[in-house]
Amino acid sequence: MAQDRVIIFDTTLRDGEQAAGTRLGAREKLEIARQLARLKVDIIEAGFPASSPEDFRAVKLICENIKTATICGLTRARVEDIDICGKAIAKAKRSRIHTGIGVSDIHIRGKFGGAKYGKTIGQKKANIIKMAVKAVKHSRKYTDDVEFYAEDSGRANRKFLYEILEAVIDAGATTLNIPDTTGYAIPEQFGGLIADIKANVPNIDKAIISVHCHNDLGMAVANSLAGIKNGARQIEGTINGIGERAGNAAIEEVIMAIKTRKDFFGIETKIKTEEFFRTSRMVSEMLGMPVPVNKAIVGDNAFAHSSGIHVDGVLKKRETYEIMKPEDVGSPKTKVVLTARTGRHGLKHRLEELGHKLNKKELDQTYARFLEIADKKHEVFDEDLMAIISDEIYAAKYVFKLDYLHVACGTGTLPTASVKMTVRGKEKQAAACGDGPVDAAYVAIREATGLSPKIENYSIRAVTSGKEALGEATVKIREDGRTFLGRGLSTDIIEASAKAYVDALNRAEASKK
Ligand code: KIV
Ligand code: ZN
Asked: How far apart are CA 271 and CA 277, in angstroms?
């Protein structure tokens, strides 16, 4: 590979999804993967196939459908994980297995404390190298493209890190991932780590060094760029920077830094940056994680100027206050508005522009819902469309369905709700009082379904503006130690809230299967 190009490894569907408090279904993951392929990322880490049957299905589905990017599956350094991953990626045009193990003393003592891994730290380290080598060799049975992650490299003992990296390259690893798993590194130090790996691992020229930085101290992007400056040639990150805890390096920020400051980095990526905005919104919508307005590159205000001096300057000469062009990241200049007269063809065209390719049945379903909303709202914005398709097409397939909801509330009255639901194919009715109208609806839904998961979080926001704006409710519930995020959409916020709750219950139920 030419040294002046950086490989982009997107892990939105694995590290990003892992943290979102929700699990995406295989169909949702495929839609995001299609958009990542349009963005032209080199590698899509589609999931961790051994973690759940749904993740296995998602990785397999993406391998069967996306042929323009390498599709990667994550594993632990375990033969069972690798065999499952090997099956999931079997149909890919180009596949990669990403396997690895913890390498810092903290990880080794914490995760491999048992005597079976050795009594002393030295014995444990020798065993870890054996496990790593075995995992890489086993992965090579399924693909020639094997990436090894040395988890918590940012805090690892250098000598041991060099030793394990040398061993896995000899075993057949073609990419070495140096993750700052805990977001502990400082740019100068992390850049130094990459330079030292290059200088001290004797067979390093046989592999590509990758950087995978977390954002706990807000330095994931800076650390990734320092890694590149010191010789790493693959960057791992996620759209909108989503990921464990404070997130991963935001891919759009890293890439726009490389592009805007080509004078400094002197390297390129093959990313189609005009797809950033669309990708950002799709990920935000499907994972229920809003993009802050001031977020670099893709926030609503990223290219907005308000103070008199700035507006005047930009109007006279754009470069006075803008270092990038909004069109370079696909930031829309105008909002597209559709109406009931737009027609099915116009709707299909706009959905495709937004990155959603629906089959005929899905389009019919979306069109019916679009007309319903266009009748109420007169004007339908892109955000409405995205919300409609998440609700209609990507929402979890139901075992619980809300057929009817009536809520009575007002000053001086006790809020009450009655619901009619289809619960596992049977009709159920329930009525209840609550602290407010949403609470009353939730109590009634619990009565009807017989479930009472803990609600961890609830929020409601207007998706678009105006008094007929669509309200989108998001509810996070906890069931059997796992969290599930449900979304609901309606011009009526109580109905949106009830739908979100039922969606979360359906997702929890689907995961049990
Ligand atoms: O942060 C990390 O160390 C990871 C590895 C599994 C690559 O996500
Ligand atoms: Zn990570």
From this structure: 13
Which residue, among 203, 201, 198, 223, has the nearest Cα to 212 in the 3D structure? 223
Shortest-distance Cα residue to atom 3 of ligand 1: 181
Packing angle between helix 382-389 and helix 360-377, nearest 10 degrees?
130
Domain residue extents for the chain = 4-287, 303-331, 344-392, 400-512
Give the pLDDT of residue 396: 62
Model pLDDT, residue 229: 97
Across residues 459-477, what is the average pLDDT? 77
Report the C-alpha gap between 128 and 147 in whole angstroms.
17
For residue 212 and ligand 1, the question of a CB distance below 6 A is answered with: yes
How confident is the model over 81-90, as pLDDT tens digits? 999 999 999 9
Q: Are residues 33 and 13 in contact, defined by beta-carbon separation less than 8 angstroms?
A: yes
Alpha-carbon distance values, 473 to 457, 459, 500, 501 (Å): 11, 6, 6, 9
pLDDT more than 70, % of the chain: 94
Distance 242 CA to ligand 2 centre (A): 10
Nearest atom within ligand 1 for CA of residue 152:
3
For residue 193, pLDDT beyond 80:
yes
Interval 216-221 mean pLDDT: 98
Query: Cα Rg for the chain, rounded, in angstroms?
Result: 25
Q: Is 366 in the pocket of ligand 1 (CB under 6 A)?
A: no
Decide whether any atom of ligand 1 lies within 6 Å of the 149 Cβ. yes
User: Measured in angstroms, how far is the CA atom of residue 46 from the centroid of ligand 1?
Assistant: 14
Question: Is residue 2 over pLDDT 60?
Answer: no
Cross-strand partners of 147: 98, 175
Using the mean position of ligand 1's atoms as its centre, give its distance from the Cα of residue 225 in Å.
Answer: 18
In angstroms, what is the span from residue 56 Cα to ligand 1's centroid? 19
- Residue 93 CA from chain centroid, whole number: 23
Per-residue model confidence (pLDDT) at position 3: 61
The hierarchical CATH code for the domain 400-512 is: 3.30.160.270
Angstrom distance (rounded) from CA 488 to CA 198: 50
CA of 96 to the centre of ligand 1 (A): 15
**pLDDT above 70: residue 394:** yes
What is the residue-averaged pLDDT of the chain? 91
Give, for ligand 1, the residue of 43, 76, 96, 151 to mutate: max count of ligand atoms closer than 8 Å to Cβ: 151
Q: Is the CB of 181 under 6 A from ligand 1?
A: yes
CATH of 4-287, picked from 3.10.180.10, 3.20.20.70, 3.40.50.300, 3.30.70.20, is 3.20.20.70
pLDDT at 397: 65
Cα distance between residue 444 and residue 415, in whole Å: 12
